[in-house]
Design goal:
Layout: H1 6-27, H2 32-38, H3 42-47, H4 61-75, E1 83-90, E2 100-108, E3 116-117, H5 118-123, H6 126-136, H7 140-154, E4 169-172, H8 174-190, E5 194-196, E6 209-220, E7 236-245, E8 248-249, H9 252-260, E9 265-268, E10 271-274, H10 277-290, E11 296-298, H11 299-308, E12 312-314, H12 319-331, H13 342-347
Parallel strand pairs: 1-5, 6-12
Antiparallel strand pairs: 1-2, 2-3, 2-4, 6-7, 7-8, 7-11, 9-10
Amino acid sequence: MGLDQPVAADGLLRHCAEVLLDKILRHTPLPTTFRRRIEHTLLDACVAPTPGPWQGPEATLDTYQRWCQWRERIVGPPQPAAFTLGFRLDEPPAESETAWALQFVVVPKDDPSQRLALADYWACPAAQKKRLRRQLGQDFESRLLHGLGLAARMVPKLWEGLDSAAPQGLALDLDAAFAFLKESAWVLEDAGFKVIVPAWWTPQGHQRLRIRLRSAGGKSARPAAAGSSGLNLEGLVQYRYQLAIGEQAVSEAEWQRLIESKAPLVRLRGQWIELERDKMQNMLAFWRQHGRETPQLSVAALLQRTATDDSFEVDRGDALAEMLERLRDQARLEPIGDLPQLQVELRGY
């Protein structure tokens, strides 16, 4: 645990003292008259039995700044640390749906590509800890524990991972993991902590709910002007609908089972997704009414529909998408006609 260094022992003692003092203050009965005097103030939130954010009517920036000035007079101005404290959410193994884990990590400022899990740090031999402290600062452990305490005041769930003198992280069930993704991750990131979430939760990896449009095997078009390669915005396209999550087609029965699931997150074919049940219910209702139809629209109307309603998209692996790509290339060379707004939409395909 690194107790070979006096600064490490001092940090551990300070951490334990902070936790003990916090529990004593929150569980010590206070006189009713005093409670009334501090009601809805910052002090009231500090001694409340259950930790939580201060939401009283006096929660203003000026009050917070005065508190920061008061704290600075006691502990001195903050010194820049050589690392950033972080939190990494690990999804459960394939055989489990509920065994999530939130790992505490540190990111050296001189090498942000590194991710040092605290579980690995505490397991290091003394000589390796000494080398790491040369990179992270000789007061690394005390700063680390202080930072974890600050984070726990913002996200009370983190206290569950601070019962040890060598904190590593904490286990989460599915609901707690979802709450971290939806709420706590933003709070911590805004406060300057590093937050690492699974790739499927990022905007780039998010699996979107869609009704995909696929060509129905044939199309008819009005005669096009010479030199247009038979393509124009007035040409008619026959297509069909398909329920999809990300790149995966989903059957009506499977879609219904997802809607009926009670979990906020589910693993579909090895990929975790967030269930937006209201949206899924509306899309299923549309599918049940129109899913077996093979409607016909002009290319312009089809582009307009997919541009104005994000529930629909053209299957990018379909011949229809290839045709739209050719139209986009053509639009770079020829005027579109009386639908200039579609020039921008075509460039998106």
